[in-house]
Each structure stands twice: as structure tokens, then as C-alpha cells.
Amino acid sequence: MSNTIYLGYYFKVEPLQPAVEILIAELGYAGFESFVETEEGVTAYIQKDEWNPNILEDVQILSSEEFEISFTFEEIEQTNWNEEWEKNFNPIVVDGVCAVRAPFHEKFDTEYDIVIEPKMSFGTGHHETTHMMIQHILKNDFEGKSVLDMGCGTGVLAILAEMKGAKPIDAVDYDNWCYLNSIENVERNDCKHITVIEGDASVLKNKKYDVIIANINRNILLQDMAVYVSCLNPNGVLFLSGFYDDDVPIIRAECEKHMLKFEEKLERNNWVSLKFLN
Q: Over the stretch 89-104, which tens digit does the pLDDT of each residue have?
């Protein structure tokens, strides 16, 4: 991996939301691997081997009149991402119970201690959506439950689910970088019951779970809701995040269309996370 050449695209977006969320979704479909939200917009990375001059042709939001979006890009040699993360990744503790840290951080005196090397994947626990999903897992019973972590990123939520007694667990992400990073982090935390799968909702055919965790963007959730519901066991629980408070009505309507019962909402800096029962 160390010699892989990446291109970094630096997008300035006004107003930021929901444009950044839509932009990330469309860039993901176009082949971009990883994203870092910034104060001005978002930085997106794609391997040079996967790039072509028309890569942004189908990114429709760039031609939207609702938002002003500009960008620059440059070639980046992926020399030492770990060093970058050491400079920028600070440990967090959620509700005094669960620590998420890197190997170079000192261990916390918490009930749950998760060690991840996040690199370019989502899911360090710093983003509001990951933080709220950790809160949901901490508050709910996972003992002996079969779990799907959809859009697993670093694998942090699947790892915490196993620490709370869940098994078996499938951690799924279509991003190859996230898939590889999740495998590393699962091994790093000595997890025995997590299977990491590279793919999208199409890999879920004929699978059943007691709990489904889906921390993805709104459009993907709406698109794949029927698949999630078909995979949920009777009396199963669905946790959703990756969207804003303004999106709750449309997300809730889609869930209730599939006979799911709304149970709880968490909110953090206008991001929300919802719990539904089957």
C-alpha cells in the first residue's frame, strides 16, 4: 500500500449541507475511496490508477444551481498515513464507558477499550454519527445477538458489539480501503466473531440478523431499507445514522412503511441517530 499514488480533490462548498453529504455519496459512486469533511467542504481521495479525466462527469451536484462548489486537486504519494494520523487523531471516551484510541495512545480506565488504526477510513468515533451509534450500542443488550454493521468503516461498531457479547457479526463496506482497515482492526482487538465483507446491500441476500447497525448517508439508507428489513429477525432492532434532523421525517416514513416501530432518537450537533423495532 505504501507506494500507492492518490489524487486529492479539495472541494469548497457553499452552503455546506446538505451539499457535502450529497457530494460524498456521488463521489463514492464515481470511484473515490475516502473522504474528510473540512470547514470549507470536503477532501476526497482516489487512487491514480482508478482516475480518468472525466471522473466528475456524473457528479450531478457540481452542476446544481443550489450550491456553489469549486475544487482543486493534486497528486499525493501515500508515504506515511500513520504519521499523519498520529498528528491528528486524538482518543475519545464515550459516556465514560468506551474509549476509542490508536495503538500509540495510553490505555484508558474504561469498561470498553477499542484500539483502531483509522488511516483514511470513516469511524474514529469523533464524527457525531459514530459517537451516537456507540451510545446506542452501550445502552442496548447485545449478548448473543447476531449483528450486521453496514457501512462499517473502521469496524469500530462491530468491534464494540462483540465486546458487548454479540455473535456472529458481519461487518460490510463497499470501500476497499474500509474493508482492509476493518480486517486489521478486528484482528488488532482480538475479535473472534466478526466476518468482514467487501460489498454493498447485494451481499445480504438470505442473511438474517437480530440487530442491524447502518451508519451511511440518507440516500443509501432509503435505497436499501427494504433489504435491511428483509434481513431483520422478528423483534429485531435497527439503528440508523448518517443524516440530519431535517431528514428524520423521510427516514421515519420509509421505516414505518416497512412496519418498523420508532423507538428513540439521539441528536448531536444536528446529526441524528434513530432506533426502530421490528
A: 778 899 999 999 988 8
